[in-house]
Amino acid sequence: MTNGTLHRLSAFTDDPASGNPAGVWVGDELPDAATMQKIAAEVGASETAFVAPSTGTDRIVRYYSPEVEVSFCGHATIATGVVLGTTDGEGTYRLSTSIGEVPVTARIRNGKAEASLVSVDTQYKSVSSELLDEALTALRWSGDDLDRSIAPAVAYAGAWHLVLAVNSAGRLAELDYDFEKLKAIMLRENLTTLQLVWREEEFLFHSRNPFPIGGIVEDPATGAAAAALGGYLRDAGIISAPATLIIRQGEAMGRPSRITVDIPVSGGIKVTGSAVET
Questions:
Q1: pTM higher than 0.90 for the full model?
Q2: 4-118 — its CATH code?
Q3: What CA–CA distance (Å, rounded) separates 26 from 29?
Protein backbone atom coordinates (compact mmCIF):
# COMPACT_ATOMS: atom_id res chain seq x y z
CA MET A 1 0.00 0.00 0.00
CA THR A 2 1.26 3.50 -0.88
CA ASN A 3 2.14 5.57 2.15
CA GLY A 4 0.69 9.02 2.58
CA THR A 5 -0.56 11.60 5.06
CA LEU A 6 -4.27 12.12 5.59
CA HIS A 7 -5.50 15.59 6.48
CA ARG A 8 -9.04 16.34 7.62
CA LEU A 9 -10.37 19.82 6.97
CA SER A 10 -13.59 21.75 6.80
CA ALA A 11 -13.92 23.89 3.67
CA PHE A 12 -15.67 27.19 2.97
CA THR A 13 -15.39 28.19 6.62
CA ASP A 14 -12.82 29.12 9.26
CA ASP A 15 -14.75 27.21 11.95
CA PRO A 16 -14.01 23.47 12.23
CA ALA A 17 -17.63 22.86 13.28
CA SER A 18 -19.00 24.54 10.13
CA GLY A 19 -18.42 24.16 6.40
CA ASN A 20 -18.01 20.94 4.48
CA PRO A 21 -15.65 18.26 5.81
CA ALA A 22 -13.11 16.91 3.33
CA GLY A 23 -10.23 14.50 3.41
CA VAL A 24 -6.97 15.37 1.68
CA TRP A 25 -4.57 12.45 1.27
CA VAL A 26 -1.06 13.40 0.15
CA GLY A 27 1.57 10.88 -0.88
CA ASP A 28 4.46 10.31 -3.29
CA GLU A 29 2.13 8.49 -5.69
CA LEU A 30 -1.58 7.77 -5.84
CA PRO A 31 -2.85 4.52 -4.34
CA ASP A 32 -4.80 2.14 -6.56
CA ALA A 33 -8.49 2.82 -7.09
CA ALA A 34 -9.67 0.22 -4.59
CA THR A 35 -7.45 1.68 -1.87
CA MET A 36 -8.58 5.23 -2.57
CA GLN A 37 -12.22 4.10 -2.38
CA LYS A 38 -11.53 2.32 0.92
CA ILE A 39 -9.82 5.35 2.44
CA ALA A 40 -12.65 7.67 1.31
CA ALA A 41 -15.23 5.36 2.89
CA GLU A 42 -13.27 5.33 6.14
CA VAL A 43 -12.92 9.12 6.15
CA GLY A 44 -16.68 9.41 5.64
CA ALA A 45 -16.60 12.97 4.29
CA SER A 46 -18.58 13.69 1.15
CA GLU A 47 -15.28 13.70 -0.74
CA THR A 48 -11.62 12.95 -0.17
CA ALA A 49 -8.97 14.28 -2.54
CA PHE A 50 -5.93 12.14 -3.28
CA VAL A 51 -2.87 14.19 -4.22
CA ALA A 52 0.53 13.19 -5.59
CA PRO A 53 3.33 15.27 -7.12
CA SER A 54 3.87 15.48 -10.84
CA THR A 55 6.54 18.09 -11.68
CA GLY A 56 7.29 21.41 -10.00
CA THR A 57 4.04 22.88 -8.72
CA ASP A 58 1.95 20.37 -10.70
CA ARG A 59 -0.05 17.76 -8.81
CA ILE A 60 -2.15 14.76 -9.82
CA VAL A 61 -5.51 14.71 -8.01
CA ARG A 62 -8.41 12.27 -7.88
CA TYR A 63 -11.64 12.58 -5.86
CA TYR A 64 -13.66 9.89 -4.11
CA SER A 65 -16.93 10.01 -2.20
CA PRO A 66 -17.61 7.22 0.32
CA GLU A 67 -19.29 5.21 -2.48
CA VAL A 68 -17.91 6.28 -5.88
CA GLU A 69 -15.15 8.22 -7.63
CA VAL A 70 -16.33 11.68 -8.72
CA SER A 71 -14.93 13.67 -11.64
CA PHE A 72 -14.35 16.88 -9.70
CA CYS A 73 -15.01 18.29 -6.23
CA GLY A 74 -14.78 21.95 -5.39
CA HIS A 75 -14.63 21.87 -1.60
CA ALA A 76 -11.97 19.15 -1.55
CA THR A 77 -9.98 21.24 -4.06
CA ILE A 78 -10.18 24.26 -1.76
CA ALA A 79 -9.07 22.02 1.11
CA THR A 80 -6.22 20.68 -1.08
CA GLY A 81 -5.12 24.23 -1.86
CA VAL A 82 -4.99 25.07 1.85
CA VAL A 83 -2.98 21.91 2.61
CA LEU A 84 -0.51 22.63 -0.20
CA GLY A 85 -0.23 26.26 0.86
CA THR A 86 0.51 25.21 4.42
CA THR A 87 2.99 22.44 3.61
CA ASP A 88 4.60 23.66 0.37
CA GLY A 89 4.04 27.43 0.44
CA GLU A 90 1.66 30.03 -0.92
CA GLY A 91 1.23 30.22 -4.67
CA THR A 92 -0.56 28.58 -7.57
CA TYR A 93 -0.59 24.81 -8.06
CA ARG A 94 -1.78 23.17 -11.25
CA LEU A 95 -3.96 20.18 -10.49
CA SER A 96 -4.24 17.47 -13.12
CA THR A 97 -7.73 16.04 -12.60
CA SER A 98 -9.71 13.51 -14.60
CA ILE A 99 -11.59 16.37 -16.31
CA GLY A 100 -8.57 18.58 -17.10
CA GLU A 101 -6.24 21.04 -15.45
CA VAL A 102 -7.59 23.08 -12.52
CA PRO A 103 -5.29 25.72 -11.04
CA VAL A 104 -5.64 26.40 -7.33
CA THR A 105 -4.03 29.38 -5.61
CA ALA A 106 -3.23 29.21 -1.90
CA ARG A 107 -2.76 32.30 0.25
CA ILE A 108 -3.04 33.65 3.78
CA ARG A 109 -5.53 36.53 4.02
CA ASN A 110 -6.07 38.35 7.31
CA GLY A 111 -4.34 35.51 9.11
CA LYS A 112 -6.61 32.82 7.61
CA ALA A 113 -5.77 30.18 5.03
CA GLU A 114 -7.83 30.29 1.87
CA ALA A 115 -7.68 29.04 -1.69
CA SER A 116 -9.17 29.87 -5.07
CA LEU A 117 -9.76 27.43 -7.91
CA VAL A 118 -10.53 28.19 -11.54
CA SER A 119 -12.89 25.67 -13.10
CA VAL A 120 -12.66 24.10 -16.52
CA ASP A 121 -14.85 25.69 -19.19
CA THR A 122 -18.54 25.69 -18.33
CA GLN A 123 -21.51 24.22 -20.20
CA TYR A 124 -25.25 24.07 -19.66
CA LYS A 125 -28.23 22.31 -21.20
CA SER A 126 -31.95 22.84 -20.88
CA VAL A 127 -33.94 20.28 -18.89
CA SER A 128 -36.56 18.09 -20.51
CA SER A 129 -40.05 18.26 -19.06
CA GLU A 130 -39.78 14.56 -18.23
CA LEU A 131 -36.60 15.00 -16.17
CA LEU A 132 -38.00 18.08 -14.45
CA ASP A 133 -41.21 16.27 -13.51
CA GLU A 134 -39.24 13.28 -12.18
CA ALA A 135 -36.93 15.49 -10.11
CA LEU A 136 -39.78 17.54 -8.66
CA THR A 137 -41.64 14.36 -7.74
CA ALA A 138 -38.56 12.96 -5.98
CA LEU A 139 -38.11 16.26 -4.13
CA ARG A 140 -41.83 16.38 -3.30
CA TRP A 141 -41.96 19.83 -4.88
CA SER A 142 -44.23 21.26 -7.57
CA GLY A 143 -43.70 23.49 -10.58
CA ASP A 144 -45.34 26.35 -8.67
CA ASP A 145 -42.36 26.34 -6.30
CA LEU A 146 -39.91 27.34 -9.03
CA ASP A 147 -38.46 30.77 -9.77
CA ARG A 148 -39.10 31.03 -13.49
CA SER A 149 -36.58 33.87 -13.91
CA ILE A 150 -33.88 31.19 -13.56
CA ALA A 151 -34.97 28.32 -15.79
CA PRO A 152 -34.15 24.74 -14.72
CA ALA A 153 -30.88 23.61 -16.31
CA VAL A 154 -28.18 20.98 -16.17
CA ALA A 155 -24.90 22.85 -15.66
CA TYR A 156 -21.24 21.81 -15.78
CA ALA A 157 -17.94 23.15 -14.47
CA GLY A 158 -16.18 19.81 -13.99
CA ALA A 159 -19.24 17.81 -12.93
CA TRP A 160 -22.91 17.96 -13.97
CA HIS A 161 -25.52 19.43 -11.61
CA LEU A 162 -29.26 19.90 -11.97
CA VAL A 163 -29.98 23.55 -11.15
CA LEU A 164 -33.44 24.31 -9.74
CA ALA A 165 -34.25 27.78 -8.43
CA VAL A 166 -37.16 28.20 -6.03
CA ASN A 167 -39.23 31.31 -5.36
CA SER A 168 -39.09 31.40 -1.57
CA ALA A 169 -36.79 30.78 1.35
CA GLY A 170 -39.48 28.61 2.92
CA ARG A 171 -39.51 26.20 0.00
CA LEU A 172 -35.73 25.76 0.15
CA ALA A 173 -35.91 25.25 3.92
CA GLU A 174 -38.17 22.21 3.48
CA LEU A 175 -35.95 19.52 2.00
CA ASP A 176 -37.36 16.03 2.50
CA TYR A 177 -36.76 14.04 -0.66
CA ASP A 178 -37.03 10.42 -1.80
CA PHE A 179 -33.38 9.35 -1.47
CA GLU A 180 -33.50 6.19 -3.61
CA LYS A 181 -35.69 7.73 -6.32
CA LEU A 182 -33.47 10.79 -6.65
CA LYS A 183 -30.32 8.65 -6.60
CA ALA A 184 -31.63 6.53 -9.46
CA ILE A 185 -32.44 9.63 -11.53
CA MET A 186 -29.01 11.12 -10.88
CA LEU A 187 -27.15 7.93 -11.79
CA ARG A 188 -29.12 7.66 -15.03
CA GLU A 189 -28.51 11.31 -15.94
CA ASN A 190 -24.85 11.47 -14.79
CA LEU A 191 -25.59 14.14 -12.17
CA THR A 192 -23.27 14.69 -9.22
CA THR A 193 -25.52 16.88 -7.05
CA LEU A 194 -28.65 18.96 -7.33
CA GLN A 195 -27.98 22.69 -7.03
CA LEU A 196 -31.16 23.93 -5.33
CA VAL A 197 -31.07 27.70 -4.91
CA TRP A 198 -33.06 30.68 -3.70
CA ARG A 199 -31.97 34.12 -4.85
CA GLU A 200 -32.29 36.53 -1.93
CA GLU A 201 -30.60 39.44 -3.72
CA GLU A 202 -29.11 39.94 -7.17
CA PHE A 203 -25.72 38.53 -6.17
CA LEU A 204 -26.65 36.60 -3.00
CA PHE A 205 -27.88 33.02 -3.27
CA HIS A 206 -28.79 30.36 -0.73
CA SER A 207 -28.11 26.79 -1.79
CA ARG A 208 -28.80 23.19 -0.77
CA ASN A 209 -27.22 20.21 -2.53
CA PRO A 210 -28.61 16.68 -2.29
CA PHE A 211 -25.81 14.15 -2.96
CA PRO A 212 -27.38 10.67 -2.77
CA ILE A 213 -25.04 9.13 -5.36
CA GLY A 214 -22.21 9.69 -2.88
CA GLY A 215 -24.20 8.17 -0.05
CA ILE A 216 -24.74 11.65 1.42
CA VAL A 217 -28.19 13.15 2.03
CA GLU A 218 -26.95 16.73 1.70
CA ASP A 219 -23.65 18.50 1.08
CA PRO A 220 -22.99 21.55 3.32
CA ALA A 221 -20.83 23.36 0.70
CA THR A 222 -20.42 22.42 -2.95
CA GLY A 223 -17.77 24.31 -4.84
CA ALA A 224 -18.24 22.43 -8.12
CA ALA A 225 -21.96 23.23 -8.11
CA ALA A 226 -21.19 26.86 -7.26
CA ALA A 227 -18.92 27.10 -10.30
CA ALA A 228 -21.53 25.39 -12.48
CA LEU A 229 -24.20 27.83 -11.27
CA GLY A 230 -21.96 30.81 -11.99
CA GLY A 231 -21.24 29.54 -15.48
CA TYR A 232 -24.89 28.87 -16.21
CA LEU A 233 -26.06 32.31 -15.01
CA ARG A 234 -23.46 33.95 -17.27
CA ASP A 235 -23.79 31.69 -20.30
CA ALA A 236 -27.60 31.90 -20.29
CA GLY A 237 -27.52 35.69 -19.99
CA ILE A 238 -29.25 35.71 -16.60
CA ILE A 239 -26.51 37.93 -15.15
CA SER A 240 -24.00 40.24 -16.80
CA ALA A 241 -20.33 39.38 -16.34
CA PRO A 242 -18.02 40.21 -14.76
CA ALA A 243 -19.83 39.64 -11.49
CA THR A 244 -19.25 38.23 -8.02
CA LEU A 245 -21.76 36.02 -6.23
CA ILE A 246 -21.93 34.96 -2.61
CA ILE A 247 -23.49 31.55 -1.99
CA ARG A 248 -24.57 30.63 1.51
CA GLN A 249 -25.00 26.92 2.06
CA GLY A 250 -25.14 24.46 4.95
CA GLU A 251 -27.13 26.72 7.29
CA ALA A 252 -30.10 24.34 7.50
CA MET A 253 -27.65 21.60 8.53
CA GLY A 254 -26.00 23.66 11.26
CA ARG A 255 -22.78 23.85 9.20
CA PRO A 256 -22.91 27.33 7.62
CA SER A 257 -20.62 27.84 4.64
CA ARG A 258 -19.69 30.83 2.49
CA ILE A 259 -18.64 30.43 -1.13
CA THR A 260 -17.39 33.35 -3.24
CA VAL A 261 -17.91 32.94 -6.98
CA ASP A 262 -16.14 35.32 -9.37
CA ILE A 263 -17.61 35.16 -12.87
CA PRO A 264 -15.40 36.52 -15.66
CA VAL A 265 -16.68 37.51 -19.09
CA SER A 266 -15.43 34.20 -20.48
CA GLY A 267 -13.56 31.08 -19.40
CA GLY A 268 -13.54 29.17 -16.14
CA ILE A 269 -15.28 30.30 -12.96
CA LYS A 270 -13.22 31.29 -9.92
CA VAL A 271 -14.39 29.84 -6.59
CA THR A 272 -12.82 31.01 -3.34
CA GLY A 273 -13.13 29.90 0.26
CA SER A 274 -11.31 29.29 3.51
CA ALA A 275 -10.53 25.90 5.01
CA VAL A 276 -9.40 24.83 8.45
CA GLU A 277 -8.01 21.61 9.93
CA THR A 278 -10.47 19.67 12.08
A1: yes
A2: 3.10.310.10
A3: 8
